[in-house]
Structure formats: C-alpha cells, structure tokens
Design a protein that fits this description.
- The structure is a single chain.
- With 246 residues, the protein is mainly α.
- It has a domain of 148 residues.
- The chain contains five helices and three strands; from the N terminus they run H-H-E-E-H-H-E-H.
- It has a three-stranded antiparallel β-sheet.
- A hairpin with a 3-residue loop joins strand 1 and strand 2.
- The longest helix has 28 residues.
Length: 246
C-alpha cells in the first residue's frame, strides 16, 4: 500500500492554510485601494487629467461669467448696450423753440393789428414804450441794407441747430439752442412772408426802451440763448453733456 502511494504520488498541499486563488489581472487594479480605470493624482471622473467644466477649461466666477452670460455686477447694463439717445433733451429743445416762436408770432400779430399806424403806448412812463416799426435789417435795426444776407444766416443757424440736436445730451444746452431756434424762426417768418417780398421782408419790432434800439421777442430769445451759450462754454459744458477743463 505504501508502495502504491509512492508510485501514484500525493496531491500538492498549499503551503499555508486558508490560502486562496491567485488574484486575476482584472482584480490587480483594486489591490492598492483604487477603483478600476482611475489614475493616481487625478480627481474622479477624469480620464485624461482634466476636470469637467466649460469648454475653455475655466470655471465661471464673479468676474468671469459663463459663456453667453452678461456681466454679473448687480444693477449694471451690458457694455454693448447703446447709450440713451437724449430724446428728452431734444424734446426740450423743440418745446422751448415752439414756445418762443409762438409767443413772438402772436405778439407781432397783435402789434400789427392794434398798434401799427397808431401812437406809441407808454408801458413804464417814457422808459419803456410799445412802438410798432418795420425793420429790414438784423436785430435792433442793424444792417438794413443786408436783408437777404441776414435771411441766409438765419436759415443756416436753423439747419446747424437741427443737426446738432442729434448729439444733444445737456439740458442747459437744449434750452439755449431752443431759444436760438425759436427766435431765428420768428424773424425768418417775417422775412419770408412780409412785404416787400420773399426773403426781403421787414421784421416787426415794437419793444422800445428809452435810449435803445427797438426790438421784438424773437430778438430777445436770440440774445438770451446766446448769453446762455457763452456761460455754458466758460463752464466747459459741451452739448453732448461732457465737461472739460482747460
């Protein structure tokens, strides 16, 4: 019996009790505590060392909004938002011009109907009177021989003011230009529609201070507008609302 066992042999006995089967290749990846497919030093979910996020590799922050977003600062509009067109300032300009023009036109109609060819009316004794006259020159009776030239100048002033209104963002400038526009329109209406003819018409003046030239409300609007423009220029305020200092 012993001889038979010697010839047949006995099976190999494991060296230590409880030894299990050798680990397979698929299990070797988990021997060091890492999950299969993970790379040492890389966060989970990353196959090639890059974290998930925006396509440019940068995460959104307060000063770097996500792609397609707007600036995150509260209360601020996007940088590409157009600047307001200053429609209110343009409305003020034409509102002041319309008021000055209407006041001048109505006053001249009353003067022509009630005062022309009549004795002057004393308003403040002999210091101020209403005396209707026809003036073929510029304001305050200057340059009566150049009626057509003054008509062209008035027309040019109206065109310049209308073009400047597109870049107007200052309320004081809107008022000043409105006074100029209303006064220029008032006197230009007289030069076009009154005798002796188109572009040669005489302007109706009626305000006669003592020791001063006779003028009308259109002349007053032009002078007030001009004075206001000079003051604004000295203060460094431009029609577009910017302030500059020399």
């Amino acid at each position: 019996m012993a001889e038979a066992e010697r010839i047949i042999g006995t099976p190999d006995i494991p060296e230590a009790a409880g030894a299990g089967p050798e680990p397979s290749d698929s299990d070797s990846g988990s021997a060091d505590g890492r999950s299969p497919g993970s790379t040492e030093g890389q966060p989970p979910g990353s196959a090639d060392g890059q974290t998930s996020g925006p396509s440019d590799g940068q995460a959104p922050t307060a000063d770097r909004p996500a792609k397609g977003g707007e600036p995150s600062e509260e209360g601020q509009a996007p940088e590409d938002e157009p600047r307001p067109k200053g429609r209110r300032k343009i409305a003020v300009l034409f509102g002041v011009a319309l008021f000055a023009y209407a006041l001048d036109l109505i006053s001249k109609m009353i003067v022509v109907a009630e005062l022309e060819h009549h004795e002057p009316i004393e308003v403040v004794g002999d210091l101020l009177r209403f005396n209707a006259i026809r003036n073929a020159g510029a304001a305050f009776g200057v340059g009566e021989a150049y009626t057509i030239i003054f008509t062209v100048i008035a027309s040019a002033v109206i065109v310049v003011i209308a073009r400047l209104a597109r870049k107007l963002y200052s309320l004081p400038w809107a008022i000043a230009l409105g006074l100029l526009l209303g006064g220029a329109l008032g006197n230009l209406t007289d030069r076009i529609f009154r005798s002796p003819g188109v572009f040669k018409g005489a302007v109706v003046d009626f305000i006669a201070p003592k020791g001063f030239a006779v003028f009308n409300l259109a002349d007053s609007a032009i002078v007030c507008g001009g004075i206001l423009i000079v003051l604004l220029s000295f203060r460094g305020l431009d029609p577009d609302g910017t302030v500059h200092k020399d």
